[in-house]
Amino acid sequence: MFTGVDTGFVCEKLQSVICACFSFSTDLNVIFAIYKHNPVLMRTIVFVIYSFLFLCFIKPARAQQLDLNYFIDHALKNDPGIKQNINQQQFYDLQTRLINAQNKAPQVNFTSDYLFVPYFGGGRPFTISPNPPDGSFGYDPALTNGGLYATQLNVSYNLFNKGIINNLQEQNNNQAAINSNAKAQLEHDLRKAVTDQYILVYQFQQQEEYLTQVVNEVRNRKATVEALVKRGLLQQSDYLLLEIEQNGHENDLAQAHIAEVNAYLTLKNTAVITDTAMTRLAEPNISIAPNPQAYYYKQKFKLDSLALVAQQNVFNNKYKPQLSLAANTGILSSDITNIYHNIGMQAGLHLNIPLYDGKQKEINDAQVKISQQSIIYARDNFTVQQKNYLQSIKRQIDMFNTSIGLIRQLTEKQELLIRLDQEKLQNAQLSILEYVKSIQDYATAKQNLITARIQLYTLTNQYNYYNW
User: 424 and which of 76, 273, 302, 429 could share a cystine (Cβ 3.0–4.6 Å)?
Assistant: First the structure.
């Protein structure tokens, strides 16, 4: 209905005018001759030159358009959930080293112990000795040795535990794979959320655009109606009716702007963007994505199943025979008077073979089987749901594509009707009620077109979300 001034087109036309004026010569004498014989033409040429420079070098400020990828990139870069997931992945990398340190490396520590065991009586106030006097009172020296003085360096090392380490590493690697897979899900969910919100903001901006066109159209017709009222061809109530129609669309425009502000704020928050500037959005570039080679949900259920197996293997580690080596060196004495003779070392092996624990292993195996079956049920159910979702959404997309074509045809006819009504109104051949009806029908058609396009974008985004 309305077209703005094309700056590039104007610059091109002005440039052609200037070239036409000066193409015959670049000599300054010719220019001065023009000024001498035709000062009006010269002033016109100067004005054209200044206008050309103003339009070409002092371009009017235009709102920068942002596209969908701008917001998605910001969201993926700044989302706290994704950052936490990346940190968690580093945790699993460190856990790999921790498992090796706990089970492969020798464990070395320093200990120091002192045990005070006095004996009372026997002709002395108290005695500290592994051989107390007869008749003294105190703990049995056969149990306490009269005290303990120990300072030792201890070393322990697990032997033949490769199977135990492998089970622990397998469990940790599986958890890392689940975390990495969860990151892909977080990114996928975030893309959908940002896209949905972007589409919503774009919808309100499109509503504002067509409502602005409608308001301007009605406002421009008011001058014509006012002139016809003064000439007695229309009544004052006709002008008032047109003004009421304008006010109604202005109110719709204000409501659409309020909705856009709120939706834009949500979009910025979802994308974790700090500035609050409202920028024009480009049309969403959304199309149906091709089918993936392997669906994400299958990998998710597979990892969940492997996690149960890894958990079961770690649980069964305690049923493996465990052999460990222990050694120490230092001071170990019960008599402080002879402590310098009690410096030495010792070494030994410890073997642990589990025999019976109340059939805990069998119970745990049964629990794992139940959990595995539940995963299979969930996977099969999701497979059916996904297939139904995709078929339903695809049918809706096809219907909206057909509907959009019909609505576009209707909108074009409404625009043509308004242009015809403008001419009739100019000649007082059309009532205001008929003109207002045409405006309302056009506004309804534009609203239906925007709604259908937004629904198509939303359904396409939803289809791509499930077809992943």
Answer: 429
Question: Distances from the Cα of 346 to the Cαs of 37, 150, 156, 232, 418, in angstroms?
Answer: 122, 13, 12, 123, 105
Model pLDDT, residue 54: 38
323 and 271 share a domain?
Answer: no
Contact 315, 367 (CB under 8 A): no
Do residues 447 and 207 lie in contact, with contact meaning Cβ atoms separated by under 8 Å? yes
Torsion of CA 303, 305, 308, 313, to 10 degrees: -90
pLDDT of residue 271: 96
Burial of 397 (0-12, 13-18, 19+ CB in 10 A): middle
Helix (H, G, I), strand (E, B) or coil at 61: coil
Question: The tokens of 415 are what?
Answer: 């625009």
CATH code (residue 214): 1.20.1600.10
pLDDT at 135: 81
Count Cβ atoms below 10 Å from residue 297 Cβ, excluding itself.
17
CA torsion angle 135 141 146 152 (round to 10): 180
pTM score, whole prediction: 0.75
**CATH code where residue 160 lies:** 2.20.200.10
DSSP string of 88-131?
HHHHHHHHHHHHHHHHTSPEEEEEEEEEE--EEETTEEEE-SSS
DSSP-assigned letters across all residues of 362-405 = HHHHHHHHHHHHHHHHHHHHHHHHHHHHHHHHHHHHHHHHHHHH
- Decide if 380 contacts 298 (C-beta within 8 A): no
* Pair 267, 406 in one domain: yes
Place of tokens 């002709």: 123
Q: From the CA atom positions of the chain, what is the Rg in Å?
A: 43
Task: Indicate whether 148 and 200 sit together in one domain.
Answer: no
| Nearest-angstrom CA–CA distance, 87 and 183 | 11
pLDDT at residue 187, rounded to an integer: 97
- Per-residue model confidence (pLDDT) at position 33: 52
Q: Residue 318 has what pLDDT?
A: 93
**What gap in Å lies between CA 249 and CA 211, rounded to an integer?**
7
pLDDT for the residue numbered 73: 97
pLDDT of residue 44: 47
Instruction: Look up the domain containing 335 and give its range.
Output: 103-165+319-356
Q: How many domains does the chain have?
A: 3
Mean pLDDT in runs of 10 for the chain (468 residues)?
Answer: 40 42 42 50 47 40 76 96 96 96 95 92 81 86 86 96 96 96 96 98 96 93 90 91 94 96 96 91 94 93 96 95 96 88 95 94 96 97 96 97 95 93 89 91 94 97 97
